[in-house]
What we know:
The structure is a single chain. The chain has 166 residues and is an alpha+beta fold. It is built from 7 helices and 4 strands. β1 and β2 form a beta hairpin. α2 packs across α6. The longest helix is centred in the first third of the chain and has 20 residues, at 2-21.
Amino acid sequence: MKALLKISVIMSSIFFCYSLLAADVVSDKSIGMELARDIANETVMACRKDGYHVSAVVVDRHAIMRAALRDDLASRFTLEIAERKANMTVMAWTDSGQFKKAREDIRQELNHMDGLIVMTGAIKIIAGGFNLGAIGVSGAPGGEKDEACARKALNKLQERIEFSIE
């Protein structure tokens, strides 16, 4: 009986200590709607200035869409492709073009997963060391041009992005 009581006390202590370490509520840093909207807008405008009609989709760190814009003359399919590129960047936490080069061996398998596509044209959105999300772009003649438009937008908004982290 004493042994059973000792085991019971030890197990209760372990579970109690473990529950002190576990978080009931988790908070994280993720991109807000206004910043996401402005990044998408600046990206579309940067591509438009270069003569390309694109869609830009911003997703948060959990690959949930926060903003999506399609230029007037961009194909409707560019929205889905841009979102899938952004999701790939969030999944890999690396720009989609870098991932494409590094993991050509699994490209076909990943392209068959819902919500993902391994193509150049999406980049991470980072502030203060936090991965806030990603921007995916589609519609320019080549992923490198899509990515260039996103980089122009992020460079233009860099100060705002950096100061978004409290």
